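Notebook entry, structure prediction.
Reason for the run: the old model in the group folder had no record of what sequence produced it. Starting over properly, with the input documented here first.
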Amino acid sequence: MLPVTEIEPVGTLYYFGDPMCSWCWGFRPVLEQVEQEYPELNRVTVMGGLRRGPDVPMDDALIELIRDAWRRIAETTGQPFDHTLWKRHRPLSTTLPACRAVLTARILNPELEWPFMVAMFKAYFTEARDCTRVETHLEIAQEVGIDPASFSETLSTSDVERALSEDLRLGDSLGIRGYPTLMLKLAGEYHLVSPGYGPIEHFRRAINAVYESNGIEFTRPESGIYS
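New structure, fully documented this time:
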């Protein structure tokens, strides 16, 4: 088998998510732990487009569905949620404006894409801010170190629409229907790590199984958890 060190690039871990996906928010600590424990994998964030409908406000039925989901996800993951959002705002039912905002950050500064995504998570789920509004996007851009004027100018460009189409097309081509989803690409092939949320142990087993099937040896002697 081929030994792997922490500095050798091995493959790419594709994270399919959405800035308004509550399970994605719940999954954030696990994802970041996976990334920390497998530094030889390049991670790529792909916008999922959780809801791709028209730009209309959420109706009461959708709001109640999401509120119930937040309660379950908080119990399962321990992640915090601020339900006062629903007293202050009625966000758009589509999540595409939020996806476009993250992609704008990617275009302007790829290193700030994930910090921007995390800031969107926190704004929507823990700070009761409407992440379908451009005003919120501009505030978050400034908070993470992106010039709001440049962000505003880029947000409405064809580059953002092209990036969104490419992200959605990739997810659709791989048959991804739920978020979060992790796919590991090795030697040109995609391997499903997990469709949905799970504990860190699940992802260790899944990634290690893909490594083993591809003849890649990967252990962490200092912890023993990968042996």
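Summary: The CA atoms of residues 99 and 131 lie 10 Å apart.
The old model has been moved to the deprecated folder.
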